[in-house]
Write a structure and sequence with these properties.
Chain lengths: 695, 554
């Protein structure tokens, strides 16, 4: 990841909590709490015990009341802290939205559709907020781009650091896949004409602000489903505790409603109920911190479910450019001759391939004499000759595609038979078959016929560590498919080297689309990333479509996520974040339910031991008094929420592994841990609480 | 009296017999529920019923068929009971009171077979044979049909909520499964000494000079389906403790075998229907673990005889038959409460306090260990969905079971299912223990009285039908309350199950991958068993504390 937003000052959780307190208090409004039925039950319980402890005050009633209110507050606090984390970022984004004056091109819609020399037309000075989709504006160096749009004329360098955090300016130009500009970014040089694509309030920055603030957060399908299950559990416990009064009444004992309310609150899954929305907000926030904007929480969840990853070869699996990896000489040529020719012809060659040849020769064939290259004239690569080279006073060196070089060699008077077939063909075919690109090197000394020296093996170099990541994906049950424009032979070789499960060679946008559809018909979820306008349909079709920020507006609109770093490898991170989000929910739910067992052991004996002394046996924690036992359980229940806020914000540790391993590990930590920890926690609290007079 | 060797021996024989029979019967059941061919006799019955046996019903149609068919059953039984004295073969018994007729009608249609009356002194042969015995077959058939439809739905892919044909499932269950097996079983039982006749009651003069009416009747034929269909309604009030119903330890083992074999085999059939035997194996394993635990605990409770009075007496033999002893009684008690049978060979009221608690908890599990024929399977599968939902999140994917995603709609139906029975039990029990009419029916007071009342509503709501004998439930109050518990406890869950089947049949079946939670491994078996026990435990522990737990500890 690059350097991004002014690194958020690491603040302690304590100060974050204090800062979020006012917002948390506002969230105590029952209408807001009602979003979580679990917490609504707690709040109603707190209100009820408040009334009861006023009518019939006792130390325990007051204690329970205070801690029930704290339980609700800790829940809203968790949500407020999670939301607070996005606030600072939102503020810096808001600065981008200050109103500016835009120069809107005056013209009929027909005129504007014509992409001629629009900059020459007359312009009106209008406030940026009055711009509508379809308007065309002119922006010059030093000016702020007044709204989202596509460049339709010109080329300019643009400072997008406010949005992406990337300080290096980027090039934006009309046509092609780098035409999208974001409102609020600044043009550094030249002049561009931009067609606005969004109205006020709907721009990319507007959506970013809404996302990072969590204000427009819609609950995701899985979160809703979990909420339903939690509500059902809560309903069961309401019935359990409500009817318990009558069973106790039959048994000749009457537990007070304060105690019953305390029992109810301890039993309903408050831990997960209080932290559920914080987990969701924090999940989105984790993406934002990695500079990925998810347009919906649904997409984040879908990322966890992805079965197939479509990855573009170039830039994702391999470094962007081919690199020289080997020199292959012909018989009768010394390696030194070949290396020298390769080096000399590449010294002044500024293409990445050329540089890689220099690097290779220097590293592998040290001590090659490179003197004299500065006396020559560089012959750049051209599409017609398909060769490049160097013309020295005493000799001419050429390197290029096998057929082009052969053609050149013939032209110097060598019969065709000497270059076709035989040794050279074997070398060339060998390189091609391994997925590489053969670059033939030939040399003509003086006016003698030219001779072929050998072959440079150029190959796509697979990124370091990518194979291991694909192995991880495989253990997670995710299939990786490499998409490339290369032919099948090259594609297969790279696919094998990178360790992807499958590849799509000579891929057209239609092929990509068909592949996605085919996987989806088989019931698999597909994730991909793309940047070009021709990627847009596939991005829209994919379950998780990550658009590169450098891409076109069409691609950004089609995808459901945008990566501000434009790093296609990040797709893998996104999948992991999605999984981590779901795991955090599941782990805390399990923890919450497992906690209940210990609470029964604390509260039930305390409630009935007076009427049935035999129940003393169940008091395995040996708590000091019934009142202290009940209060300890309530306090534990509340404190565990605070204790788990950091975990819910950070997410549980995620190690890519198979479902079976993940389950075993998480069950051990959160299931068994959730079973045992309250026994210890309640006992410790009891030791403290029993010191309070009146308990 | 107490000796562990015979106790282990009978369990070993039973387990061996089940191990042989369950896979065979399971394979046969899977064939019955998936074969496209109809038998000639079946085609004839479809013509009489005027149904198209090949119509693939939408879940709503399927559910309406279930409810309509059951409603007709209730009306018919109600009529038979009320008009008994005007019909032949009444043995001179009067018509049933309206609350009693309602209770009995609901009881037999819901596969509960709760009996508020003494069979031999209330119902004539016509009511027994054409009413109760018929329902013993078809109510079991309805349960198995629903379970089969659910399994089929899980095996389907995008089929617009169509889950099969109720009439085909029902007719096939009765004709191909229940009738043939109970025919053989009845003959075996007759050979073992169970009575089977149409005689008028025999009057005998006892040694002390008293006069007794000994009622015979078609006992063996009813006994077979009573166990096989996990019905439990005995011909005699004493049920399988009566020597005419269950004369010897051998017949006892045979009856236990009969009541366990179909529930376990349904789990095996499930694996075959969904195309992955391991899945059926895992479900079967969970059922076996829970059943085994109950048998172990109950046997321990009865044989170790904790409690003052049994300790003094040298054995917990009160309410048990000497010819069976504690171990066989415990085995029967845990099997009859683990299945939704409710037949008894000992009076559960007289089980030791912890033993009674185990029997109660077994029913509270929702009849899934291994449960009623059909209802055991779908009940366990609903718990599996809950488990998958919780555990599935922990592997970082939207939860899915057998390739079916568990989304909002699915989990809502499961939530309703999970809510239904606890609400019925807890609210019903609270009403029964609060109302004066309810209290009047209890024999005991204090914790044991609570157990009696709680046992009755638990038994009714879970469609078990066994009774904690102390309760006198033949009052309008209890008849009405328990009737409602049985009715809602049977059909509300069924509707939720069928609705979920509809969703599953409509949704896409996703292929499994290494990222999918495996639901056939031992870890899942442990997890599902744990979820069943913990969820049920959390729900019922407070009332159990006030009943059997307090009783055990004092």
């Amino acid at each position: 990841m690059n350097v991004h937003h002014p690194a958020p000052v690491r603040r302690s959780l304590g100060s974050q909590l204090v800062e979020a307190l006012p917002a948390a208090l506002r969230k105590l409004d029952p209408r807001e709490v009602a979003a979580s039925p679990v917490m609504l039950v707690v709040e109603i319980g707190a209100a009820a015990t408040t009334v009861m402890s006023v009518l019939d005050p006792s130390t325990m009633a007051v204690g329970v009341t205070i801690w029930l209110w704290l339980t609700v507050l800790f829940g809203t606090l968790a949500e407020a802290v999670a939301e607070g984390r996005g606030k600072a970022q939102a503020a810096s984004l808001r600065a981008l939205q200050q109103e500016t004056t835009a120069r809107r091109v005056r013209g009929s819609s027909d005129q504007l559709r014509y992409t001629g020399n629009l900059a020459a037309l007359q312009v009106d000075q209008v406030p940026s907020t009055s711009l509508r989709a379809g308007d065309v504006v002119v922006v010059e160096a030093g000016e702020r781009i007044p709204g989202d749009g596509d460049v339709i004329e010109g080329v300019a360098s643009v400072d997008e650091s406010a949005v992406t955090g990337e300080s290096a300016p980027v090039i934006r130009e009309s046509g092609g896949d780098r035409s999208a500009v974001t409102g609020g970014t600044v043009v550094l040089s030249d002049r561009i004409v931009v067609r606005i694509t969004s109205g006020p309030g709907q721009s990319f920055v507007d959506r970013m602000i809404a996302l990072v603030e969590g204000s427009e957060r819609q609950r995701t399908p899985n979160e809703i489903a979990l909420n339903i299950l939690l509500t059902a559990l809560t309903a069961i416990f309401v019935v359990v505790v409500g009817t318990l009064y009558y069973y106790a009444d039959y048994s000749g004992t009457n537990p007070s409603w304060v105690v019953l309310t305390a029992l109810l609150v301890c039993l309903v899954p408050t831990t997960i109920g209080a932290l559920l929305s914080a987990i969701g907000i924090a999940g989105m926030d984790r993406l934002v911190r990695r500079n990925v904007l998810a347009m919906s929480g649904r997409a984040v969840e879908a990322a966890g479910d992805v079965d197939v990853l479509l990855l573009d070869k170039t830039g994702t699996i391999t470094y962007g450019n081919r690199q020289a990896t080997e020199l292959l000489r012909l018989d009768g040529v010394t390696l030194e001759e070949l290396a020298r020719a390769a080096l000399l012809s590449s010294m002044a060659d500024e293409t990445p391939e050329g540089r890689s040849i220099v690097t290779l020769v220097r590293a592998r064939y040290g001590g090659i004499d490179d003197s004299g290259s500065d006396r020559g004239a560089l012959v750049p690569f051209s599409a017609t000759t398909r060769m490049s080279g160097l013309d020295l006073p005493d000799r001419v060196i050429r390197k290029g595609a096998a057929s082009a070089v052969a053609h050149w060699v013939h032209s110097t008077g060598v019969p065709a038979a000497e270059t076709s077939g035989g040794e050279l063909t074997v070398l060339v075919d060998g390189v091609s078959a391994s997925g590489g690109t053969p670059l033939v090197v030939a040399e003509q000394v003086g006016s003698r016929p030219a001779r072929v020296l050998g072959v440079i093996h150029l190959k796509d170099v697979v990124k370091e560590g990518i194979r291991e990541r694909f192995d991880e994906m495989r253990t997670m049950g995710i299939r990786t498919v490499m998409i490339t424009g290369d032919n099948a032979i090259t594609a297969r070789a790279i696919a094998e080297e990178a360790g992807v499960d499958d590849f799509l060679a000579e891929a057209t946008p239609e092929d990509k689309m068909a592949l996605i559809r085919r996987e989806q018909t088989g019931g698999r979820l597909v994730a991909m990333c793309g940047d070009g306008t021709n990627d847009a349909p596939a991005l829209a079709q994919a379950d998780v479509g990550v658009a590169m920020n450098t891409g076109t507006m069409a691609a950004k609109e089609a995808g459901n996520m945008v990566d501000l770093d434009s790093d296609p490898t990040k797709l893998i991170d996104i999948v992991e974040i999605g999984k981590q989000l779901l795991i955090t929910r599941g782990a805390l739910t399990t923890f919450s339910i497992a906690n209940d067992i210990a609470k029964y052991f604390a509260i039930l004996p305390a409630m009935f031991v007076v009427a049935f002394p035999g129940l003393d046996v169940l008091d395995i924690m040996q708590l000091s008094s019934p009142e202290s036992a009940i209060l300890s359980a309530v306090v534990f229940n509340a404190l565990v929420i605070v204790a788990l806020i950091p975990l819910s914000l950070r997410g549980v540790r995620y190690q890519p592994s198979s479902a079976a391993d993940l389950l075993r590990r998480n069950l051990l930590v959160y299931g068994v841990g959730g079973l045992i920890s309250p026994f210890m926690g309640i006992k410790l609290l009891d030791l403290v609480i029993s010191l309070i007079p009146g308990l | 009296m107490s000796s562990f060797a015979p106790a282990l021996g009978q369990v070993a024989v039973l387990v061996l017999a089940l191990a042989i029979a369950v896979p065979l019967l399971g394979r046969y059941l899977a064939h019955v529920y998936t074969s496209p061919k109809h038998l000639a006799v079946e085609r004839a019955s479809y013509r009489v019923l005027r149904v198209d046996p090949d119509a693939d019903q939408h879940w709503r149609t399927y559910a309406m068929s279930v409810l309509g068919f059951s409603l007709m059953g209730v009306l018919l039984l109600f009529g038979l009971g009320r008009l008994q004295d005007h019909l032949p073969l009444s043995l001179g018994f009067p018509g049933l009171p309206s609350d009693g007729a309602w209770n009995t009608a609901v009881s037999f249609v819901t596969n509960t077979n709760w009996q508020w009356y003494s069979g031999e002194a209330t119902t004539g042969h016509l009511m027994q044979m054409s009413g109760l015995t018929v329902q013993n077959f078809v109510s079991a058939g309805v349960g198995m049909a629903v379970a089969a439809a659910f399994a089929r739905a899980l095996s389907r892919n995008r089929q617009e909520g169509r889950i099969g044909n109720f009439w085909t499932d029902l007719v096939r269950t009765v004709l191909r499964v229940l009738l043939p097996i109970s025919l053989v079983a009845a003959v075996v039982l007759v050979l073992l000494g169970v009575v089977q006749n149409f005689l008028e009651p025999v009057v005998v003069h006892t040694l002390t000079g008293g006069v007794q009416d000994i009622t015979g009747g078609p006992v063996a034929s009813q006994e077979a389906i009573k166990e096989l269909g996990t019905n439990g309604g005995g011909f005699y009030n004493a049920n399988s403790a009566h020597p005419f119903e269950n004369p010897t330890p051998v017949s006892d083992i045979v009856e236990i075998f009969l009541l366990l074999v179909i529930p376990f085999a349904m789990a095996w059939a499930f694996g075959i229907i969904v195309g992955d035997r391991r899945q059926g194996g895992a479900i079967l394993a969970v059922m076996a673990v829970l059943w085994g635990a109950a048998v172990g605990l109950l046997t321990w409770a009865e044989m170790a005889a904790p409690g003052t009075a049994p300790g003094l007496a040298g054995g917990a033999m009160e309410g048990k038959e000497v010819r069976f002893g504690e171990a066989a009684s415990a085995l029967f008690a845990s099997s009859t409460t683990g299945t939704s049978t409710g037949a008894v060979n000992a009076m559960h009221d007289s089980l030791t306090a912890p033993g009674g608690g185990v029997a109660l908890f077994n029913m509270m599990l929702g009849e899934v260990a291994p449960g009623g024929v059909g209802s055991g399977l779908y009940g366990m599968l609903m718990l599996a969905v809950v488990t998958v939902f919780l555990a599935g999140l922990m592997v970082g994917r939207t939860p899915e079971y057998l390739g079916k995603k568990i989304g909002q709609r699915e989990i809502s139906l499961v939530a309703f299912y999970v809510l239904t029975t606890p609400v019925l039990v807890l609210v019903g029990g609270a009403i029964g223990l609060t109302a004066a009419d309810g209290l009047a029916g209890l024999l005991n007071s204090g914790p044991h009285g609570l157990s009696e009342g709680l046992y009755a509503v638990t038994s009714a709501s879970n469609n078990n039908g066994s009774a904690f004998a102390g309760i006198t439930s033949g009052t309008p109050f209890w008849n009405t309350l328990l009737g409602l518990c049985m009715l809602f406890g049977r059909f509300l869950p069924m509707v939720f199950v069928l609705a979920l089947a509809g969703l599953f049949a409509r949704s896409q079946k996703l292929p499994p991958s290494a990222g999918t939670l495996p639901t056939h491994r031992p870890l899942f078996v442990v997890l599902l068993s744990g979820v069943a026990v913990v969820v049920v435990g959390l729900t019922y522990v407070p009332v159990l504390v006030l009943g059997p737990i307090v009783e055990s500890l004092s």
